[in-house]
Amino acid sequence: MRRRGAMVMAVVLAAAFLLSACGGGNQPEGGATARQDPDKLVMGFVPSQNATTLQETAKPLGDMLSQELGIPVEVFVSTNFIGLVEAMANEQVHIGFLNPFAYVIAKDRGDPVEVMFKSVRHGSDSYRAQIFVHADSGISDLQQLKGKKFAFVDPASTSGYLFAAHVLKRNGIDPEKDIQPIMAGSHDGAVLSVYNRQTDAGASYEDARTLVQKDYPDVLDKVKVIAYSDPIPNDTISVVSWLSDDLKKRIHDAFVKIAETEEGKQVLFDIYEIEGLTDAQDSDFDIIRSVAKDMGINLEELAD
Question: Is 294 exposed, middle or buried (0-12, 13-18, 19+ CB in 10 A)?
């Protein structure tokens, strides 16, 4: 393994270990016989809020899907994306709301997962990472970041580390050698570290500054964005690939119908602020694979 990207690789390998070890823990009861359509469907989510709240928020979507398909649809909330990926691999969850990195990891390690939709927010099916500095820092371009203290979000964050670090690397800045990296632990934490001058620069998703704007109304003036990443595909709705083509088409058409209703739009927004759905294919996520490769991460090794 190359030293470059070792921090990311360590996290991903830890994820791989957990993927191999967490089977049976925190999983929904039941399951389906392989290669046969199940009598009921289980739809899984990764919590971005209190798990109990998400369970309640997502239940109406399960009810709508059940009504459209004519079979029961249960909601399962995993403690993290690792548990959801593993539940799909174990044929216990059939529909998964996976973030793009989780989908790519599952797909490239050979899990039976098939992407169906990407979410749409702010009229787009993608978003970007951003790199920012304090407006009074005198820093106006990436080259001036050498030797500076830099706040990433987390080594496992797609925008708050992987894509931001890739922007630095493409501009000749080694994210491990040429700057002083710290992990802020969250997107708003990275923003506030720059706002409060604890670090010289930081990274987050676009535009995470609004997360703290209520408490820090001048954050848009004091924290200045100086670079963006390439577009990152939004999170997915994926299904287990062994479902029959007929059932997959019915699931697809049901989601399309639900997303066109006012009630369905509200439920999708309440869950993950999803404003719409667009058809997706595996190649849409090649940018994740390309960036991971550039950063020294071999996703195929996760299948070992």
Answer: middle
Q: Helices (DSSP H) in 164-298: which residue ranges?
A: 164-170, 187-195, 219-222, 245-260, 262-272, 286-294
Q: How many helices (H) and strands (E) does the chain have?
A: 10, 13
Give the mean model confidence (pLDDT) for residues 270-277.
92
Q: Buried b vs exposed e over 221-237: b needs ≥16 C-beta within 10 Å?
A: ebbbebbebeebbbbbb
d(CA 241, CA 248): 9
Reply yes or no: is the peptide bond before residue 207 cis, omega within 30 of 0: yes
Q: At what angle do helices 100-108 and 81-89 cross, to 10 degrees?
A: 40
Cα 55 to Cα 78: distance, rounded to the nearest angstrom: 10
Q: Which residues pair with 120 in a beta bridge?
A: 276
* Rounded Cα–Cα distance for residues 100 and 289 (Å): 10
In 3D, which of 78, 47, 43 has the Cα closest to residue 59?
A: 43
Rounded Cα distance between 269 and 98, Å, is 16
Question: What is the predicted pLDDT for the residue at 201?
Answer: 98
CA atoms of 275 and 121, how far apart (whole Å): 5
Selected residue with higher pLDDT from 50 and 44: 44
**Helix extents (H) in 113-154:** none
Task: List CB contacts of 118: < 8 A, sequence separation 6 or more.
Answer: 125, 126, 233, 234, 235, 236, 277, 278, 279, 280, 284
Q: Mean pLDDT across the chain, nearest whole number? A: 86
